Q: What sequence folds into this?
């Protein structure tokens, strides 16, 4: 037990390498202390002791500079939760699960390098697209009559009259908080001034400067559960002048969205901390974007935001717990416009915020923005738009009809639930090729362009290392293993191939494929394959439901949106059955479509009317209520699919002949138990229907 002095009720805790410190009541979980200090510790499971990603270690000794004597005994004893995790996976002797370990004395806590995934790359760039300008806010230079004894109008009234007369506007009003500044400003400018007029049907003066001014900016922000991206646009030219991005600091409260909802369920007073975290991050991004452009924050008069429903609510300060379960009720779904001062996000307080509408309780404003940007509703082709994430948002249709749904893919595509998985960061494997004859792999990692069989890779790999495998890498690895015959159609790693290659290794009762052997081994396990199968089957089943509802057996065009979708090789996405069959030349990544939709609404007010009308027309399909979801899900567990043909894929890729692994070859006793519990003769697991969520 801890050696804390009797009668002391709290302890001093220092987190390294950040250096953040604070005092906490004895019995506080280390994970909670980290969250309160803003120290990022990854927790995919929301603190339940399942994922093991919140591992920390105690630095022992006397730290005179910090006046801390730190000891491993200043944590609660090894818990049953930790013992269960250590038995199931592995937990180094010097590691503890921070969600389970309680503070019982002064501590210096080390956050291991591999868990500091705030190093992850932010890949939400502004897509180059010309957008016709028709801004809702414009600058108007006016010359105002001086006060006159014969016409005793107030200065504000004469300013309004001048704006109406000189700019041919009617019904102009002045934002109330601006009125106390008008007299001083008019006199500073010698009765000449520049005003910003926000006109969404009621022309309103929202800002004023003395004399002539020709600087006006707007921001478009995509608030993702993992990353936040901010784009600063010159509203007078329409050009994106700077962009900035950061990891969403809310991750310390939960890796995925549902774990953040769970956090609020367990901590009802935790909402202000979540709201403060996301707004603070956005304000920092605005500061950076404005600074990079040499602009002034008070010249930012428009702000447009998109995000999934939970991020939408948290940004607005709305408790999202109702979104944690059926019927997934939104507090507000329509578009919103309100003064920026109500959020305090660091732009001109008279500026206006526009929030795109949400489509449904689990299909958010980000999906609305992406649909606006890609425009399936404007053409005749049946277009499938998919934003791949922990909760995939799916839109299908054309100008005649548009449908939308969400499918709970889980965090596997972002590296969670994968034995060597990680987010996209330097050192992560993102490309894989396997020789079908020798079964030897080649890899490419983020931060180094060369492939592993290139001399340049050998020379430079120490600069970034090989630290794990990210989502695009695991998809390519499984696709290549399937093409090479290492994985059967049903996702079973063929253990009989161990006779051909030492890379096929027995791991417990199943087999794995050794992808990389260096400072650490990176292997693809049977559980990794299953995690990807479950994720891709959930997405594909959602797509098939929309196709059923639309009454089509094919799609003409597929667009993969989002940061992850932009880095998937479309061939491998189709090969594993993540998306339906389609001519590969009509399958493309479209980048940060949600951010593009936000910029469209920023620069042209007609797009606001379009997206609001579009969302009203979109038919929402609830996958949890559809009886065929399970049928489609089970079929989609196979690679690429058990029942659906893939003629376009077969024309582009030589698919392996069907192969069934015999008993004992790659399954062992574990496979026999699954067979007994009701799996198919070919080994496809038949799980319970997934419950749609926001994570």
A:
């Amino acid at each position: 037990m801890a050696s804390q002095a009797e009668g002391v009720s709290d302890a001093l805790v220092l987190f390294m390498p950040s250096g953040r410190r604070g005092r906490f009541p004895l019995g506080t979980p280390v994970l909670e202390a980290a969250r309160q200090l803003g120290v990022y510790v990854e927790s995919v499971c929301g603190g339940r002791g399942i994922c093991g990603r919140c591992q920390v270690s105690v630095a022992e000794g006397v730290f005179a500079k910090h006046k801390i004597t730190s000891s491993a005994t200043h944590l609660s004893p090894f818990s049953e939760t930790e013992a269960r995790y250590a038995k199931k996976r592995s937990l180094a002797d010097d590691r503890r699960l921070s969600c389970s370990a309680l503070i019982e004395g002064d501590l210096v806590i080390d956050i291991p390098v591999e868990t500091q995934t705030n190093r992850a790359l932010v890949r939400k760039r502004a897509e180059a697209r010309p957008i016709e300008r028709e801004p809702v806010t414009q600058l108007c230079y006016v010359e105002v009559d001086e006060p006159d004894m014969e016409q005793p109008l107030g200065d504000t009234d004469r300013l309004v009259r001048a704006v109406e007369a000189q700019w041919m506007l009617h019904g102009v009003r002045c934002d109330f908080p601006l009125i106390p500044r008008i007299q001083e400003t008019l006199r500073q400018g010698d009765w000449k001034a520049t005003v910003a007029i926000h006109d969404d049907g009621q022309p309103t003066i929202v800002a004023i400067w003395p004399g002539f001014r020709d600087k006006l900016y707007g921001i478009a922000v995509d608030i993702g559960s993992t990353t936040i991206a901010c784009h600063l646009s010159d509203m007078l030219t329409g050009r994106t002048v700077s962009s900035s991005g950061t990891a969403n600091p809310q991750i310390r409260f939960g890796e995925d969205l549902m774990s953040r909802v769970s956090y609020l369920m367990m901590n009802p007073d935790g909402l202000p901390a979540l709201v403060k975290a996301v707004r603070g991050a956005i304000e920092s991004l605005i500061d950076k974007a404005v600074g990079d452009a040499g602009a002034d924050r008070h010249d930012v008069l428009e702000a447009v935001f998109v995000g999934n429903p939970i991020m939408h609510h948290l940004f607005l300060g709305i408790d999202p717990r109702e979104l944690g379960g059926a019927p997934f009720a939104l507090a507000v779904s329509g578009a919103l416009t309100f003064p920026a001062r109500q959020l305090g996000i660091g732009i001109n307080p008279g500026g206006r915020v526009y929030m795109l509408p949400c489509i449904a309780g689990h299909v958010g404003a980000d999906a609305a923005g992406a649909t606006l940007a890609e425009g399936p509703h404007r053409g005749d082709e049946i277009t499938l738009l998919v934003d791949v994430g922990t909760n995939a948002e799916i839109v299908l249709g054309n100008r005649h009809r548009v449908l939308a749904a969400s499918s709970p893919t889980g965090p596997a595509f972002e590296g969670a639930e994968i034995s060597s998985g990680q987010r996209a960061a330097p050192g992560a494997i993102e490309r894989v090729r396997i020789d079908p004859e020798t079964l030897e792999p080649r890899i490419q990692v983020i931060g180094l362009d060369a492939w592993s069989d290139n001399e340049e890779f050998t020379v430079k790999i120490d600069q970034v290392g090989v630290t794990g495998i990210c989502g695009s890498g695991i998809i390519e690895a499984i696709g290549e293993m399937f093409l090479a015959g290492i994985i059967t159609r049903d996702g079973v790693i063929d253990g009989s191939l161990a006779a051909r290659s030492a890379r096929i290794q027995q791991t417990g009762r199943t087999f794995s494929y050794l992808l990389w052997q260096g400072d650490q081994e990176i292997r693809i396990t049977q559980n990794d394959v299953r995690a990807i199968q479950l994720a891709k089957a959930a997405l594909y089943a959602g797509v098939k439901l929309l196709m059923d509802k639309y009454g089509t057996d094919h799609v003409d065009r597929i667009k993969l949106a989002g940061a992850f979708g932009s880095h998937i090789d479309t061939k491998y996405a189709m090969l594993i059955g993540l998306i339906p069959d389609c001519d590969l030349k009509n399958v493309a990544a479209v980048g940060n479509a949600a951010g593009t939709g936000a910029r469209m609404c920023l620069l042209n007010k007609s797009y606001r009317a379009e997206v609001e009308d579009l969302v009203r027309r979109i038919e929402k399909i609830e996958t949890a209520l559809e009886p065929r979801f399970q049928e489609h899900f089970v079929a989609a567990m196979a690679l690429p699919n058990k029942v659906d043909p893939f003629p376009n894929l077969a024309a582009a890729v030589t698919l392996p002949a069907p192969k069934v692994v015999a008993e004992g070859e790659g399954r062992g006793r574990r496979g026999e138990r699954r067979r007994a519990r009701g799996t198919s003769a070919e080994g496809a697991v038949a799980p319970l229907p997934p419950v749609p969520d926001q994570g």
